C-alpha cells in the first residue's frame, strides 16, 4: 500500500477519502519539523507539504520512493519544482479554494487602510475618551472612483478585480501575459506597463506568485514611482516587497500606507511597521477560514488520489 506523509496538523475531514484508501501519517496536534520529515521521508511515496515547509534538493535526494509532492497552497515557492520535476516527481497545488478568500482579504485590506478602520478601533480601545473624534478627525480616502493596480492577473487577481469593480473602482493590471480582449472586457480591466501601473494607481495590490523574477518587484525605485497618496496591498508572498525599503518609504511619505498579510522575513513584520498607524498588518490569514482549510485538504487529497488512481484531474505544477 502506498504511504503518504502529511507534514502539518489539519482538520481530518478533508482527508477522509485519502485515509480510507492509503496509509496516511499525520503529526499529532502540531506540525512535523523538517528534521522529523527528513528522517521519515525514505519510506514514503507521497509528501503532502504546507506552503512554508521547504521541499528542497536535500530532502528530495533523501526520498528514493517519492513520486509526488502535493502542496497545501496555491503558491509553491517552498518547493524546488525544477529539481522535483527533473527527478520525475509530480508536484501539485490547490488553486481552487484559495481564490475567493484571498481576494476577500485583499479587498478587506484596501477598505481598512483607506478608511482607517483598524486604526480607529485600536485608538478607541487604547485611548478611550482621550481619542480625538469629530467630523474633521480620522478622515480617510474613498475607494469608489479610485484606481486599483493589480500586479498578477491570475485567478486571485481576477477575483479581486471583480470585487473592486463592484465597489466602483477603476482597475488596471500588469501580468506576464496580457489577457485576451474578451476577458479584459468582461472584467472591465485595462492592461498597462508595470511603470504605468505604479504611476496611475491609488492602490497597488500584489497578486503574483513569488519567483526569482518577482523577488522585490516592489523595491525602492518602484515605491518612488508610486503616488504619495498610494496604498500598497500584499496578500501574495512577503519577498515580493523589499520590506526595509517599504519602511523607509512610509517613514518619508513616499507612499501613504500599506496593508500587508505577508512579510518578507517569515511570520512577523519588521518592528518599525508595528508602530505605524497607516499600516494594517494581518498574519497570513488569506485562507484562514475553517471551511477553506477543509476544502484545501480535500483538494490535496483529490490531487493525490487523482495521481495514484487516474480517476480525477490533478492540479499539476509543471514549472517553477
Ligand atoms: C497561501 O498562501 C497559498 O499559497 O495558498
From TrEMBL:
This is Lactate dehydrogenase. Residues 12-317 form the D-isomer specific 2-hydroxyacid dehydrogenase catalytic domain. The keyword NAD applies. It holds the Pfam family 2-Hacid_dh_C. SUPFAM superfamilies: Formate/glycerate dehydrogenase catalytic domain-like, NAD(P)-binding Rossmann-fold domains. InterPro entries: D-isomer_2-hydroxyacid_DH, D-isomer_2_OHA_DH_cat_dom, D-isomer_DH_CS, D-isomer_DH_CS1, D-isomer_DH_NAD-bd, NAD(P)-bd_dom_sf. Gene3D superfamilies: NAD(P)-binding Rossmann-like Domain. Belongs to the D-isomer specific 2-hydroxyacid dehydrogenase family. One of its GO terms (cellular component) is cytosol. The keyword DNA repair does not apply. It comes from Parabacteroides chinchillae. Keywords: NAD, Oxidoreductase. Residues 107-286 form the D-isomer specific 2-hydroxyacid dehydrogenase NAD-binding domain. PANTHER family: 2-HYDROXYACID DEHYDROGENASE YGL185C-RELATED (PTHR10996:SF178), 2-HYDROXYACID DEHYDROGENASE-RELATED (PTHR10996). It comes from the Bacteria. GO terms for molecular function: glyoxylate reductase (NADPH) activity; hydroxypyruvate reductase [NAD(P)H] activity; NAD binding.
Amino acid at each position: 500500500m502506498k504511504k503518504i506523509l502529511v507534514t502539518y496538523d489539519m482538520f481530518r475531514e478533508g482527508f477522509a477519502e485519502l485515509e480510507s484508501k492509503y496509509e496516511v501519517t499525520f503529526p499529532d496536534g502540531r506540525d512535523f519539523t523538517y528534521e522529523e520529515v527528513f528522517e521519515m521521508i525514505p519510506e514514503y511515496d507521497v509528501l503532502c507539504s504546507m506552503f512554508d515547509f521547504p521541499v528542497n534538493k536535500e530532502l528530495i535526494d533523501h526520498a528514493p520512493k517519492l513520486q509526488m509532492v502535493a502542496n497545501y497552497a496555491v503558491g509553491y515557492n517552498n518547493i524546488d519544482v525544477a529539481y522535483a520535476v527533473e527527478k520525475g516527481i509530480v508536484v501539485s497545488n490547490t488553486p481552487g479554494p484559495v481564490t475567493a478568500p484571498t481576494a476577500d482579504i485583499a479587498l478587506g485590506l484596501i477598505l481598512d487602510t483607506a478608511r482607517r478602520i483598524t486604526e480607529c478601533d485600536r485608538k478607541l480601545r487604547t485611548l478611550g475618551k482621550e481619542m480625538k473624534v469629530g467630523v474633521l478627525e480620522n478622515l480617510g480616502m474613498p475607494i469608489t472612483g479610485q484606481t486599483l493596480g493589480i500586479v498578477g492577473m491570475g485567478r486571485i487577481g481576477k477575483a479581486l478585480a471583480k470585487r473592486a469593480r463592484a465597489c466602483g473602482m477603476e482597475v488596471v493590471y500588469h501580468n506576464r501575459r496580457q489577457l485576451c480582449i474578451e476577458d479584459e472586457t468582461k472584467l472591465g480591466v485595462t492592461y498597462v506597463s508595470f511603470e504605468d501601473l505604479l504611476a496611475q494607481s491609488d492602490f497597488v495590490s500584489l497578486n503574483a506568485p513569488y519567483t526569482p523574477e518577482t523577488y522585490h518587484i516592489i523595491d525602492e525605485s518602484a515605491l518612488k514611482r508610486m503616488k504619495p497618496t498610494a496604498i500598497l496591498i500584499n496578500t501574495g508572498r512577503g519577498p515580493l516587497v523589499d520590506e526595509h525599503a517599504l519602511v523607509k518609504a512610509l517613514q518619508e511619505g513616499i507612499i501613504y500606507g500599506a496593508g500587508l498579510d505577508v512579510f518578507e522575513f517569515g511570520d512577523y513584520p519588521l518592528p518599525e511597521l508595528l508602530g505605524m498607524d497607516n499600516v494594517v498588518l494581518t498574519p497570513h490569514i488569506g485562507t484562514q477560514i475553517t471551511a477553506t482549510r477543509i476544502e484545501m485538504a480535500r483538494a490535496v487529497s483529490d490531487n493525490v488520489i487523482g495521481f495514484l488512481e487516474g480517476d480525477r484531474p490533478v492540479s499539476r505544477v509543471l514549472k517553477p
